[in-house]
Specification:
single chain, 295 residues, mainly alpha, Farnesyl Diphosphate Synthase, two-stranded antiparallel ribbon, 2 strands, metal-binding, transferase, Isoprenoid_synthase_dom_sf, Polyprenyl_synt_CS, prenyltransferase activity
Length: 295
């Protein structure tokens, strides 16, 4: 039976409410860590993971409650990773505001990220698929573990060690792919398309790498300055320069983005849930951010 379609903005409002309720739990008074979580959510964000869950969920006739639950799970885990990432990278600002660790201290930031991870499991309970909760929990745990593995790879990076573009892509895939793929994986699990989750995962991981390389092209000067202070982080353009591509590194990186995006379009073209149409908006956005004449 086809579910009623609700405006995306209305569902996003429900997602925000569920995230807040899951973070608060049964507390009548906010702890410093809970307050820090709510502060972080108020700083904004595009909620792209929530939008993926909603658009895909509507295309696959998922109930509104399940759409909201999948979206909230993905956003809570993503924002937990941002809080911890800012702490580990010692970044002072995010979205034009003080980062959680800068405003509340490192110890509170660590606890705030942990609360968000725990809250994601509480949010999952609002899905209308109780019989599939074990499988959904398995997907969540896998995504968290893979993203932590990618983060550890990122933190262990030293520019002056041998580091190839392949090494970089494995790191970017592990760090960004799992939590970007999770909302779609959860929707596919909840809607009875479990057999195609692996195909979804492979395609979205490629998109995540393309997205990260695009960010690196735009941030190369900033990352070079950070490297001078000892706070080096993997950047695709810098990795290519270190591997002998010199002034052509930007062009090589751009070409790699276009190749990955073409592969994503091919890989998702046969998947249900209008995934090709949904991702085409994001693909066009990345292409637009890179001038074709760089290639």
């Amino acid at each position: 039976m086809t579910q009623d379609l609700y405006p995306v903005d209305d569902i996003l409002a429900d997602v925000e409410a569920l995230m807040h309720d899951s973070i608060r739990g049964s507390e009548s008074l906010l702890s410093a860590a809970t307050e820090a979580c709510l502060y972080h959510l108020k700083t904004g964000g595009k909620r792209n993971r929530a939008r993926l869950a909603i658009h895909c969920g509507q295309a696959l006739n998922l109930t509104k409650s399940s759409q909201v639950a999948a979206a909230a799970v993905a956003e809570l885990l993503h924002n937990a990773s941002l809080i911890h990432d800012d702490l580990q990278d010692h970044d002072d600002t995010r979205r034009g505001n003080e980062t959680v660790w800068k405003k509340y201290g490192a110890d509170v930031a660590l606890c705030a990220g942990d609360i968000m991870i725990s809250a994601s499991y509480a949010a999952l309970l609002h899905a209308d698929c109780r019989g599939l909760l074990p499988q959904c929990v398995t997907l969540i745990h896998r995504s968290v573990c893979k993203s932590i593995q990618g983060q550890c790879h990122d933190l262990s990076y030293t520019r002056y060690e041998s580091y190839t573009l392949l090494d970089y892509e494995k790191m970017a895939e592990g760090k960004s792919g799992p939590l970007l793929s999770l909302p779609v994986e959860l929707v596919y699990q909840m809607s009875g398309h479990q057999s195609q989750i692996e195909q979804v995962r492979e395609a979205v991981y490629k998109f995540a790498v393309a997205y990260q390389i695009t960010d690196d092209i735009n941030d190369v000067d900033q990352d070079l300055r950070r490297g001078e202070t000892g706070a080096a982080a993997p950047n695709a353009v810098i990795v290519l320069r270190d591997n002998g591509h010199g002034e052509k590194s930007d062009s090589v990186a751009s070409l790699r983005v276009f190749t990955l995006l073409d592969e994503v379009k091919r890989d998702i073209s046969t998947l249900p849930g209008q995934l090709s149409e949904i991702f085409n908006t994001y693909i066009l956005g990345l292409r637009a951010s890179l001038s074709e004449d760089k290639a």
